[in-house]
Amino acid sequence: MGLRDIAIVGTAQRPSEINSTFTSVELLLPTIQEVLTKVGIERQDIGFWCHGSCDYMSGQPFSFVSAVDAIGAWPPIIESHVEADGAFALYEAWVKLQTGEVDVALVFSNGKTTSGPINRILNLQTDPYMVAPLWPGFHVLSALQARACLEAGVVTQRQMAEVAWRSQRDGKNNPLTLSGTEMSVDELLSQPFTVDPLRAHDCAIPVDGANAIILAAGDAARRLAKRPAWIRGIDHRIDTQRLGARSMIESSSAAIAAQKAGVGKDRIDVAELHAPFTHQELLLRQAMGLSESTHINPSGGALVANPAMAAGLARFAEAAESVFSGSADRVLAHCTSGPLLQQNLVCVMEGE
Amino acid sequence: MSEADGLMRLRLPIAVTYNWSAGPNATSHLAGLLEGKLIGKRCPSCLSVYFPTRNGVCPKCARILAEDVTVGPKGTITTFCIVNVPFLGQKIKLPYVAAQILLDGADISMQHLIQECEAEDVRIGMRVEPVWRDRSEWGPSMENIEHFRPTGEPDQVMGSESGAS
After folding, report:
1. How far apart are CA A329 and CA B35, in angstroms?
2. pTM across the whole model
3. pLDDT tens for residues B20-43?
4. Are the Cβ atoms of A23 and B23 closer than 8 angstroms?
5. Best of A18, A23, A68 to disrupt the B interface by mutation (most B CBs within 10 Å)?
6. Which helix (H) or strand (E) holds A131?
7. Which residues contact A123 (CB under 8 A, 6 or more apart)?
8. Number of CB pairs, chain A paired with chain B, less than 8 A apart
């Protein structure tokens, strides 16, 4: 039996906020209602719900359980949760749809990234024996990686500033993001280092956000969207968690995931890459073999709005929307997880 | 770090500080407690009254709970247990009763302490009322109520109340 055709048929994203006074459930509920309304279906039409979040973001144990209140669990529903970015919840929903048990799934994620010190919180995903007790902080780890890349000559400071400049320029056109400065590449390069060799513009802006995506299989997808974004390939690969045991200057997991997802089979019009640091976007482009003709992160990307645990699913939403609108035919959505691009999920979608 | 029996032990404490926001819905509940009021929320769809307000949404209907409703202060015990087991940090004299209390006008019960009666006299359907701490000790917390005590009113026949509980 072959794989079922599965597509994204609708997306909703909550505009980014800093220090949101809403709870995670209050962030999610209107976003989920928005995507249902956009697609024109009811809660009862959803066969499977899957949520991506991390309790460390809101600082509330089992907050993912209370998030079920945002979707309404009566009459009983079939739902699941991943302690990860919503993009991984989308992967689980894709697998669920492949079983043939359900035809429509709703994936949602949220991240209250600004209620705690995100730099410290993300440290907790490192090896708990040898790395986490040192409290290196996410920016410090990424600075070590950036330094290795610069020394090896795989990226330059100017290329990093160009990524920041392009992301800020495109982010200004995206009402969902909180865009920063309007500096030229040269001006960006004259800014002080925050964690040498990273400057402020090299690091993603943490925000609070939520998003939701509806997936559907076969005829259901054709019924629910004028131009569904069909998933043609999706793959997830993981590098070792031991930071000293893998190369800092390339991402082999991203390269394998991209190859398995079929990235190189044809031209990619738009690639939404989840890169919380400028040098990481450059590493991902190299790993996936993306050419100059691919428009990288027309949304502005995670650099200008990084709701941790929702920023990856946001890439799927942005990529799918460019298929819905007809502005792109073949798109790539990517999510990373763990320290220094440890995990990479790559998805290729096409319009018909 | 200590060494004993050839084993090396490390203490590696972790701590992260958050700015937690109660959200607009729970805020009216907490602000009510500061004034000695018990404020719940009504679902616009199924009309159930939630106290406390959970996450500001009705979990059955997935709707934001917008309307404030004052509940109680009296309520009815829907179930209870008698605690006989001592544990570290215990502040209350054994035996004592932890009960689920359905406040008048609410559709879900909440847990609180029953005092001022013998544990063996507590029963399902018993009517109770809150005993508030001194106002100087109040904060945005259910701890403003020290405990509940019997009112002496006739028992409520359980099952006659409506609601979501």
Report:
1. 59
2. 0.92
3. 888 888 889 999 999 999 999 999
4. yes
5. A23
6. none
7. A132, A135, A136, A137, A138
8. 83
Selected residue of B12, B18, B48, B107 to mutate for chain A interface (largest A Cβ count, 10 A):
B18
Q: Which of A31, A46, A71 is nearest to B59 (CA)?
A: A71
Q: Which of A56, A71, A133 sits opposite B62 (nearest CB)?
A: A71
- With 0-12 / 13-18 / 19 or more C-beta atoms within 10 angstroms meaning exposed / middle / buried, residue A120 is middle
- Residue A130 in contact with partner chain B when CB distance is under 8 A: no
Token pair 């941790």: residue: A308
Rounded CA-CA distance A4/A37 in Å is 25
**What tens digit of pLDDT does each residue of A27-63 get?**
999 999 999 999 999 999 999 999 999 999 888 888 8
Predicted complex ipTM exceeds 0.90: no
Contacts of B59 in chain A (CB under 8 A): 68-69, 72-74
- Cross-chain Cβ contact B62/A33 below 8 Å: yes
Cα distances (angstroms) measured from residue A132 to each of A243, A273, B141: 12, 27, 35
- Residue whose structure tokens are 């697609």: A39
Cβ atoms within 10 Å, residue A76: 6
Closest CA to B107 of B154, B60, B155, B37: B60
CATH label, A6-116+206-224, candidates 2.40.50.140, 3.40.47.10, 3.30.230.10, 3.40.50.720: 3.40.47.10
- Report the SS3 class of residue B77: strand
**Single-letter residue type at B133:** R
Length of chain B (residues) = 165
Closest CA in chain B for residue A131? B12
Q: Is-contact A126 A139, C-beta < 8 A? A: no
- The Cα of B70 is separated from the nearest Cα of chain A by a number of Å equal to 22
Where do the structural domains in chain A lie, given as residue ranges? 6-116+206-224
Are B150 and B128 contacting, i.e. CB atoms less than 8 angstroms apart? Answer: yes
Decide: helix, strand or coil at residue B51.
coil
Element (DSSP H or E) covering residue A13: strand A6-13
**Closest chain A residue to B13 measured between Cα atoms?**
A133
A238 in contact with B, Cβ within 8 Å = no
Hey, are the CB atoms on A69 and B62 less than 8 Å from each other?
yes
Residue B97's DSSP bridge partners are: B82, B114
End-to-end CA distance of chain A: 23
